[in-house]
């Protein structure tokens, strides 16, 4: 229970991260840079300060505690120093103009919070889902949390894009009831352009999980202009059929609601040109996958 890791949120009463009522633990760190990412605060392992100048009430408390003299009168960075993510401004702020994203916790810390809702899991068939970021970037910490959750009688799920060494999956697989597997794109060149990495390892890990008889749910976030073409969907259907995947594909329509996160974190959003996926696009994707021999259904928009 003493092993530590980095997370940025624990969200209770989730109903879209696996079956039943669930608690989702969002872990820090990701080896991909998906242009449409809804959780850019997950990319880096260390803590970050998210700034909302419009909330600032001008109390000045943040300026008094910032060791780098970085914070201006309106909660913006002045450029006078480098933010270390110490979190002192967030602790001092009464208006949540500064919010700390990322903290170090123990396995015991996480499981104690998750176990608070065990009665709801037992009643609904739910449990805990480890998401991110990429949970497999912290394989030892993830495995320890999964094992502790199973020891507590809690159903476990891992949401992953599979971009991790096979040994990282092997470390977690014995304590994972469900793998929620996010396939980004089948075209390797597109995958590299829009995520920063190739897709060979991710697809290979998916194949191995299916071959091992693990419970897998494939998710596919439909992003207009990226992975919504007929060829993209036909390739996905062909691949899943070829590896013997017998489950359904959960198609999530892309939504641009999180673009504002990037500016508040001091990051640039690279996907501003893409519009949201429409209902007609999503239904067409479901039909295309069905035509390729793979069952699919429309899910709620991605977080």
- Mind summarizing the main beta sheet? 9 strands, mixed
Compute the separation of the termini in Å: 30 Å
The low-confidence runs, each spanning 5 or more residues with pLDDT under 50, are none
Averaging pLDDT over every residue, what do you get? 91
Order of helices and strands: EEEHHEEHHEHEHEHHEHEHHE
Structure description:
- This protein has 303 residues and is α/β, with parallel strands linked by helices.
- The protein is built from 11 helices and 11 strands.
- The strands form 2 sheets. The protein has a 9-stranded mixed sheet.
- The relative contact order is 0.15.
Question: Notable features of this structure?
Answer:
303 residues, two-stranded antiparallel ribbon, 11 helices, 32% helix, alpha/beta, nine-stranded mixed β-sheet, 20% strand
Brief digest:
With 303 residues, this protein is α/β, with parallel strands linked by helices. The radius of gyration is 20 Å and the shape is globular. The two termini are 30 Å apart.
Spell out the blueprint of helices and strands.
Elements: E1 4-14, E2 22-27, E3 48-51, H1 61-65, H2 88-92, E4 98-101, E5 103-106, H3 107-114, H4 118-124, E6 127-131, H5 139-151, E7 155-160, H6 166-173, E8 178-182, H7 188-195, H8 200-211, E9 216-222, H9 230-242, E10 249-253, H10 259-264, H11 279-291, E11 296-298
Parallel strand pairs: 2-6, 6-7, 7-8, 8-9, 9-10, 10-11
Antiparallel strand pairs: 1-2, 1-5, 3-4
Helix pairs in contact: 3-5, 5-6, 9-11
């Amino acid at each position: 229970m003493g092993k530590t890791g980095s997370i940025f949120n624990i969200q209770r009463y989730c109903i879209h991260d696996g079956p039943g009522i669930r608690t989702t633990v969002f872990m820090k760190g990701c080896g991909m840079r998906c242009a449409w990412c809804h959780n850019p605060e997950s990319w880096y392992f260390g803590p970050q300060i998210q700034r909302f100048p419009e909330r600032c009430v001008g109390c000045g408390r943040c300026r008094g505690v910032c060791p780098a003299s970085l914070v201006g009168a309106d909660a913006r960075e002045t450029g006078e120093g480098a933010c270390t993510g110490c979190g002192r401004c967030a602790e001092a702020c009464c208006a949540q103009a500064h919010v700390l994203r990322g903290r170090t916790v123990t396995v015991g810390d996480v499981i104690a919070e998750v176990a608070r809702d065990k009665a709801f899991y037992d009643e609904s068939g739910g449990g805990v889902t480890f998401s991110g970021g990429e949970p497999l970037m912290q394989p030892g910490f993830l495995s320890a949390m999964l094992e502790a959750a199973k020891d507590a009688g809690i159903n476990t799920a891992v949401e992953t894009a599979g971009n991790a060494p096979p040994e990282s999956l092997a470390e977690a697989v014995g304590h994972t009831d469900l793998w929620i597997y996010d396939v980004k794109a089948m075209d390797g060149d597109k995958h590299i352009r829009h995520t920063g990495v190739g897709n060979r390892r991710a697809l290979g890990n998916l194949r191995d999980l299916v071959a091992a008889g693990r419970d897998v749910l494939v998710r596919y976030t439909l992003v207009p202009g990226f992975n919504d073409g007929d060829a993209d969907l036909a390739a996905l259907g062909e691949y899943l059929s070829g590896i013997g995947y017998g489950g359904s594909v959960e198609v999530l329509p892309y939504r641009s609601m999180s673009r504002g996160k990037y500016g508040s974190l001091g990051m640039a959003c690279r996907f501003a040109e893409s519009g949201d996926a429409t209902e007609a696009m999503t239904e067409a994707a479901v039909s295309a996958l069905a035509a390729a021999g793979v069952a699919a259904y429309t899910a709620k928009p991605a977080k």
